[in-house]
């Protein structure tokens, strides 16, 4: 009994945001088989609070939704909100040119990219790496430390 509870507590939650139903189902099957808890969203949210309430450990995000670049808006929203800034993000997209144009920004934010069509092992490796990322841990530490001017000066 105790082991099952422990596994449930330790299970990582992945939010997949993609507008293709077949891909959402594929991600669900692949990721659940690997032991992840999977939340699927076929509609890109415009409210960071909706994502915040789900408490994902990682977001797997497409940047194109019906040929619109809504994923970039979601990405920016997640990175500029204090509550979601440290959530690892993997962009999984067919929009190679768009992603390559933003490569410097993505690298600076610790955002990984997996291009479609993807190799399953590459995707799973990127997820594992993102969940163990030292970049994420640095962001989490930075969030917990008070700014210099609010520290006790005694």
Summarize the structure.
The chain has about 150 residues and is an alpha/beta fold. It contains eight helices and five strands; from the N terminus they run αβαβαβαβααβαα.
Keywords:
8 helices, alpha/beta, globular, 49% helix, five-stranded parallel beta sheet, disordered C terminus, 154 residues
Helix content: 40-55%
Largest sheet: 5 strands, parallel
Overall pLDDT, averaged? 83
β-strand number: 5
Proportion of residues in extended strands: 5-15%
Give the count of helical stretches. Answer: 8
What structural class do helix, strand and pairing data support?
Answer: alpha/beta
Strand order of the largest sheet: 2-1-3-4-5
Give the H and E element order: HEHEHEHEHHEHH
Termini separation: 49 Å
Spatial extent as radius of gyration: 16 Å
Q: Could you name the ranges where pLDDT drops below 50 across 5 or more consecutive residues?
A: 139-154
Shape summary: globular
Write the layout of secondary structure elements.
Blueprint: H1 2-10, E1 13-17, H2 21-33, E2 37-41, H3 48-54, E3 58-61, H4 70-80, E4 89-93, H5 96-101, H6 103-108, E5 112-115, H7 120-131, H8 134-144
Parallel strand pairs: 1-2, 1-3, 3-4, 4-5
Describe the protein in words.
The chain has eight helices and five strands. It is α/β, with parallel strands linked by helices. The N and C termini lie far apart (49 Å). Residues 139-154 have low confidence and may be disordered. The chain has helices at residues 2-10, 21-33, 48-54, 70-80, 96-101, 103-108, 120-131, 134-144, and strands at 13-17, 37-41, 58-61, 89-93, 112-115. Strands 2-1-3-4-5 form a five-stranded parallel sheet, covered by helices on one side. The radius of gyration is 16 Å and the shape is globular. Helix 2 links the parallel strand 1 (13-17) and strand 2 (37-41).
